[in-house]
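It is worth pausing here to work through a concrete case rather than discussing structure prediction in the abstract. The textbook approach is simple: state the sequence, then state the predicted structure, then interpret. We follow exactly that order.
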Amino acid sequence: MNLMTLLLDATIMLAVFSAAMALYWWSARPTSPVDARLKEINPRISQELAAPPVSKVIVERVAKPMAQIVPASPRNVRRLRRRLTRAGFPNENAVSIYGAIRLISGIAIPLLAGLALVVAGRPLTGASFPLLLVAFTFGLFIPSFLLSRRIAKRQQQMTRALPDALDLLVVCVEAGLGLNAALQRVGREMELVEPALSYELAITNREIRAGKPRDEALRNLGDRTGVDDIKSLVAMLIQTDRFGTSIADSLRVFADSLRTKRRQRAEELVAKATIKLIFPLLLFIFPALLIVLMGPAMIRIYEMLKQLSQ
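Step two, the predicted structure:
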């Protein structure tokens, strides 16, 4: 046995021993004095603290340490938290989980690209470095791209469902309910139709019941969703409440304008469809038609030219 074999065996043994110790420390960590004291006071509370959910353990021991590898400024953290909230992830650990996913993606995609090169028979040399760099960049930015797509899809769903929710709100206000009760009822009725809008209205209702001023809770609704129509609705409700005008009349006028805007958006999409059909026609359908129509003629012309050349 030469020196390289001994070093390799020692490295493998050290890696296995480190993995075993890490698993032991993760599963059978020593009990803290706080947990021991809680066990003496109330065993049920001690059991709840001693056996946290698996997702919480993963976040505390995996996601947060991985997210701290690439530190971010407080401004970027606030901006990322706002984007995650608009995407439907308001959890306090969402930033850490996103950072861990981004780091894993940035490492896994270059590894998969390198593995694909090895399987294809191309050795990993200096010429492969640009490809791995592109894969690393793609892995870092793909979570942000998917998050932006989710935000856009969620905002589009809420924009599409907002006119129907406003019609229900007008009916509830005209039936004698207050604005707070009407928002709560509309959120409950929209739960099956549009869960995202129902969830945001439920958060607004909880903030109002917790004692936050209604105008502030409505502004938070517009900031959380980022939908322009909801921001306009919030501004209208705040002005109506401030100047003392009729909420039912204002909501009815705003609902009519939103229905008109929704119809105009549908007409715009129909008008854009004819332009968007040009590209698949030119790229897929027109070449096939050209081959079918011009193919026999081109074969005949080729045969005639071949006979003339002889």
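Step three, interpretation. The mean pLDDT is 78. The two ends are 75 Å apart (CA to CA).
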